[in-house]
């Protein structure tokens, strides 16, 4: 028998996705998971004979959110078929990307010539009242929109040459978007840290809301001010300020970012890695 791809009904596909795709983002409920793809018509069933054996999301010329449907699992042969189908259908000439590939699926993609671009994970920790402190040479306060240009500069310098490095305009757009949408309660949980001597901002932690729960939107400390507990102090401030209104704090981290060790020390639990992979067309 050969594999086939059949367009899926969005409502049914979203239910299958919510049930069978690992909730590695700690989304609060099954209902929240169904909303992720409820309005999208880019879901497909992978069919073998008369059986639906997997679901796959094909959008923006990329493969994403693959899940097996019991008793079937994701296999090398199945991914080979999906890859061949997309290359032929989209007439790609340079590369094919696969997003949100779970750890247990990675081997099936690698055996089809995909290589890793980056890996990320969502982490979560309960909020609680903590004793917050800061090195005597530093002070922290609530960020304001007047800080935006300095915040962008901190991101640029802190992320330079690392896995999260982006164009400066991306940082500027992210900061502007943050101040446009942030709730005052979440701004109270956010912080900028400045050097008492120079009065320059050297650290930033911005807290936003994602699907009803707080999320670390961005956190960064300038390289020359690391190792002094500034990031830890900003997280303590956030966890303490959020505790009366929210049960948990979530964040995303790119594998290879040194901050991952801090998050684990602070009690953040990982939902597991997921990968961005790429197949280069020769």
From TrEMBL:
Q: Which domain of life is it from?
A: Bacteria
- The signal peptide annotation in the UniProt record is none
Stretches assigned to the N-acetyltransferase domain: 134-282
Sequence intervals crossing the membrane: none
**InterPro entries per UniProt:** Acyl_CoA_acyltransferase, GNAT_dom
CDD domains in the record = NAT_SF
Could you tell me what this protein is called? N-acetyltransferase domain-containing protein
Note the Pfam families from the entry: Acetyltransf_7
| Molecular-function annotations in GO | acyltransferase activity, transferring groups other than amino-acyl groups
């Amino acid at each position: 028998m050969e594999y086939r791809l059949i367009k899926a009904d969005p409502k049914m596909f979203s239910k299958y996705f919510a049930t069978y795709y690992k909730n590695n983002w700690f989304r609060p409920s099954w209902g929240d998971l169904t909303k992720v793809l409820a309005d999208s018509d880019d879901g497909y069933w992978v069919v073998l004979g008369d059986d639906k054996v997997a679901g796959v999301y094909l959008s923006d010329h990329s493969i994403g959110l693959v899940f097996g449907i019991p008793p079937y699992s994701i296999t090398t042969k199945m991914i080979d078929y999906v890859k061949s189908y997309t290359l032929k259908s989209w007439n790609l000439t340079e590369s094919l990307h696969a997003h949100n590939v779970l750890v247990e699926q990675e081997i099936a993609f690698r055996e089809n010539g995909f290589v890793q671009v980056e890996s990320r994970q969502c982490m979560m920790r309960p909020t609680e009242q903590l004793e917050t402190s800061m090195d005597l040479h530093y002070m922290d306060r609530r960020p304001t929109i007047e800080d935006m240009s300095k915040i962008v500069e901190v991101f640029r310098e802190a992320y330079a040459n690392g896995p999260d490095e982006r164009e400066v305009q991306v940082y500027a757009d992210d900061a502007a978007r943050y101040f446009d949408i942030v709730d005052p309660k979440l701004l109270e949980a956010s912080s900028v840290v400045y050097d008492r001597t120079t009065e320059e901002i050297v650290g930033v932690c911005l807290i936003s809301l994602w699907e009803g729960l707080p999320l670390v939107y961005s956190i960064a400390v300038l390289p020359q001010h690391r190792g002094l507990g500034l990031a830890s102090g900003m997280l303590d401030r956030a966890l303490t300020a959020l505790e009366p209104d929210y049960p948990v704090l979530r964040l995303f981290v790119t594998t290879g970012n040194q901050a991952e060790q801090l998050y684990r020390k602070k009690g953040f639990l990982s939902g597991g890695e997921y990968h961005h992979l790429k197949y280069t067309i020769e």
